[in-house]
Design a protein that fits this description.
The structure holds three protein chains of three kinds. By secondary structure, chain B is of the alpha/beta class. Helices cover 37% and strands 21% of the residues of chain B. In chain C, the strands form two sheets. Chain C has an eight-stranded mixed β-sheet with strand order 2-1-3-4-8-7-10-9, with helices on both faces. In chain C, helix 1 crosses helix 6 and helix 3 crosses helix 4. At the B-C interface, strand 2, helix 3, helix 4 and strand 9 of B face strand 2, helix 2, helix 4 and helix 8 of C.
Chain lengths: 89, 380, 277
């Protein structure tokens, strides 16, 4: 039982875009993602580097802070924020 | 408007000429015997809505010139041999980025610190070959305050027209001698403005020549040009591993001058119509040589004077054809043989070329040149 | 959530046809460029009124990647070039981005004099402790004892503290960040761009290829971890107290932010005073 009207809360997620062929595998995005969203992939890009990929298990873990984008030296990753309605139990 | 008459030294004349030509930015560094120009520009430019800045050295001065030229201004600096040596790397940058600028180089006797207050003409080759790699400059040599005024306007016009560094190669005594200078009415003075692009930024190729010269988009015009001293293509992008682009670029920056040498050429001929012996001189020596020719003529020696007002690009074809009729050339210059080598090269062995050097610190006396004429005449 | 390939929104500020850039994996220069572009975006600066000037070296290549009027000049001479550009065309926002060797060795004289005159430009000096482009030689900021190709037994020269130099020479804004502080760096660049006068930001950046691997930091990631663990933010500290030594903490932050009339302003005033009627 609640005595107040609950507003719909919005939780922000990020959608990560990776331009694989620009990646030079410095590992900064993987190391410094506060949420641990990224990991190194097995695949090779055109230059022979392993670009990052998302950690598969946790789809909504990225909060869209954009730090990976800020510290990527190669313009190979960026994030777009997405808002969605949070369902409450 | 009427013409005006002034009593000016060469330094003032070159400064006032520059202002008439549209120079509104001057960066320089003190050096004898060129400081007078900087001092005068410091006085005059702010009055004309222009900018004078004294930089920390000559390298900074010419770098500032390049920046200001790309900022859209007509620009000049003044210096002498040692300062000119320091500027050379950026002369190359100006040549390869096709940046219009004028360097008033008041020569003193070298090498090194040499004789700071006395005359010399030893910077002739430096003004052509001072920077590394293949490139071309235009070099102009006045022989009076009047010509300092008139020809510096031409120097600016050529710099803007051909997008090239122009060296205004003065002699110490021209900068310091005062004479009558006639200033023509403003409407009679030709002032050339640089060609700007008339296509949209998407279609603009910053280094693609149109009739030999690429229109120049300076900062803030919306063309977002990349300018680099690296070997670059017509887009301005570095192409540092392409021999083809290197060839295209070097040919362009050289050929735009070489092809137009006959248009740039400015030579005074005196008593050359029937001459058998020709004195070749430039700058202050042209005046002694003229007096020597007069002496020779009084003694019925058919001597004449070829005075180079433009030294570079060297008027090769001119000398080659002159050598069909003239068999004896005497080159009088205040150095140990610089233009002499060029004349020798240009006449292709069709005539003899003798050097009459001075080593700096003094100008040839007319009598010395006359003596040399007699010597050559008598078949040595 | 899926990963797709799409154009990076920052590409509009780049000459995207020249990307990927020439810098090595892990090089900090891309981060500096990125932070600069984000600052431009957030300040909504008109790219037609922005000029970027650089000298020679790895950092010197930055100008060539930015989609604006950009000038890649001779070694050490970016600042006097920028001085001429700014004076002749005061509408332009003029930024110099160059390296430690370019700005403080061969171009050191120009740096101090532009700061002294308070020329209205922003200088971003990327300090990677060595000459990267030419193969990792000793530079004016190489820490004492560090190994480079021209100090194979360890550096015996005392390095410059760049922020101290800038402050002493008269810069009105002085800050230092590492490339790990990308967001703070971006904010600092925004402040500097809005500052009237000579502003200077030193950015500590990894050079794994020619410096790191000779100094027990062959992986740029290790150097970034070092920044995380050993950087200390001390705003307002006297920059003379912020020397950089091997293995010691790196003091970062905004050290100087003062007001002073600029050279441009002085010139305009002078012109008004002496202009012929």
């Amino acid at each position: 039982m609640t005595y107040w009207v609950e507003e719909e809360e919005k939780k922000v997620h990020g959608k990560v875009y990776i331009i694989k062929d620009r990646c030079k595998q410095c590992g900064f995005c993987i190391e410094f993602c506060p949420q641990g969203v990224l990991q190194q992939s097995e695949e090779f890009n055109a230059k022979g580097y392993h670009p990052p990929k998302l950690v598969e298990t946790d789809e909504k873990k990225c909060v869209g802070c954009g730090f990976c984008q800020m510290i990527c030296p190669d313009f190979a990753i960026f994030v777009e924020k997405e808002e969605e309605n949070e369902e409450r139990d | 408007m009427k013409k005006e008459i002034r009593f000016w030294n060469g330094s003032i004349a070159v400064s006032e000429g520059a202002i008439v030509a549209g120079c509104r930015f001057f960066a320089g560094y003190p050096i004898t015997p060129a400081s007078d120009i900087a001092e005068y520009m410091a006085l005059r430019l702010p009055q004309e809505d222009g900018i004078f800045i004294q930089m920390e050295d000559e390298i900074a001065s010419i770098a500032a010139l390049l920046g200001a030229s790309w900022g859209g201004a007509k620009v000049m600096t003044s210096t002498s041999g040692p300062g000119f040596s320091l500027m050379q790397e950026n002369v190359g940058l100006a040549a390869v980025t096709e940046t219009p600028l004028v360097i008033a180089e008041v020569q003193r006797a070298g090498p090194s610190t040499g004789m700071p207050t006395l005359v010399g003409q030893g910077d002739v080759m430096q003004s052509r070959w001072g920077s590394h790699g293949d490139y071309e400059t235009i070099v102009i040599s006045p022989s009076s305050p009047q010509e300092s005024f008139d020809l510096v306007i031409r120097a600016f016009n050529l710099a803007e027209l051909y997008r090239v560094p122009v060296i205004f190669l003065m002699d110490e005594c021209i900068a310091h001698m005062s004479e009558r200078v006639v200033i023509p009415p403003k409407e009679e003075i030709e002032v050339v403005e640089r060609i700007k692009p008339n296509v949209s930024p998407e279609k603009y190729m910053p280094f693609q020549p149109v009739n030999d010269i690429a229109p120049m988009a300076t900062a803030g015009m919306g063309y977002r040009v990349h300018v680099t001293g690296l070997t670059h293509n017509e887009k301005g992008y570095p192409m540092t591993t392409s021999p083809e682009v290197q060839e295209w670029m070097v040919r362009h920056i050289c050929d735009k001058i070489r092809k137009n040498e006959h248009k740039i050429r400015d030579i005074e001929e005196y008593r050359m119509e029937d001459a058998e012996i020709a004195i070749v001189a430039f700058g202050i020596v042209g005046r002694s040589a003229k007096a020597a020719v007069k002496m020779a003529r009084r003694h019925r020696i058919k001597a004449g004077l070829i005075r180079l007002k433009t030294i570079w690009p060297f008027p090769e074809s001119y000398f080659e054809s002159m050598a069909d009729s003239i068999k004896k050339f005497i080159v009088a210059e205040i150095n140990y043989g610089q233009i002499k080598l060029e004349v020798e090269r240009a006449v292709h062995g069709k005539a003899s070329v003798e050097l009459l050097p001075k080593f700096g610190g003094a100008v040839h006396q007319p009598m010395e040149i006359y003596q040399k004429i007699k010597e050559v005449k008598n078949g040595n | 959530m899926e990963i797709e390939a799409r154009a990076n929104p920052m590409d509009k500020y780049l000459r995207a046809d020249r990307i990927p850039h020439i810098w090595c994996s892990g090089c900090g220069l891309g981060i500096v460029l990125n932070a600069f572009l984000h600052a431009i975006e957030e300040l909504n600066i008109d790219l037609d009124k922005l000029a970027v000037v650089s000298g020679i070296g790895c950092t010197g290549r930055i100008a060539g990647y930015i989609n604006t009027d950009s000038y890649h000049t001779t070694h050490g001479r970016a600042i006097p070039f920028a001085t001429g550009l700014k004076l002749a065309n005061p509408e332009m926002k003029v930024v110099v981005i160059s390296g430690d060797g370019d700005l403080f060795a061969i171009g050191g004289n120009h740096f101090i004099h532009a700061a002294r005159r308070n020329i209205d430009i922003t200088v971003i000096g990327v300090n990677n402790y060595n000459y990267g482009m030419t193969g990792g030689q000793l530079g004016p900021t190489t820490p004492l004892g560090a190994r480079t190709t021209t100090s194979p037994y360890g550096n015996i020269e005392h390095p410059f503290n760049l922020c101290h130099v800038a402050h002493a020479a008269g810069a009105v804004y002085v800050a230092r960040w590492t490339v790990l502080h990308a967001i703070r760096l971006k904010n600092s660049i925004k402040e500097a761009l809005n500052k009237r006068g000579f502003s200077f930001i030193e950015v500590i950046a990894a050079c794994p290829t020619t410096y790191g691997r000779r100094n027990k930091m062959p992986d740029a990631l290790d150097e970034m971890r070092f920044y995380r663990e050993h950087s200390v933010i001390k705003h307002g500290i006297d920059p003379s107290q912020a020397n950089i030594e091997i293995g010691k903490e790196i003091v970062v932050g905004k050290f100087v932010d003062i007001e002073k009339p600029t050279f441009n302003e002085a010139v305009e005033e002078l012109k008004k005073k002496v202009k012929k009627k």
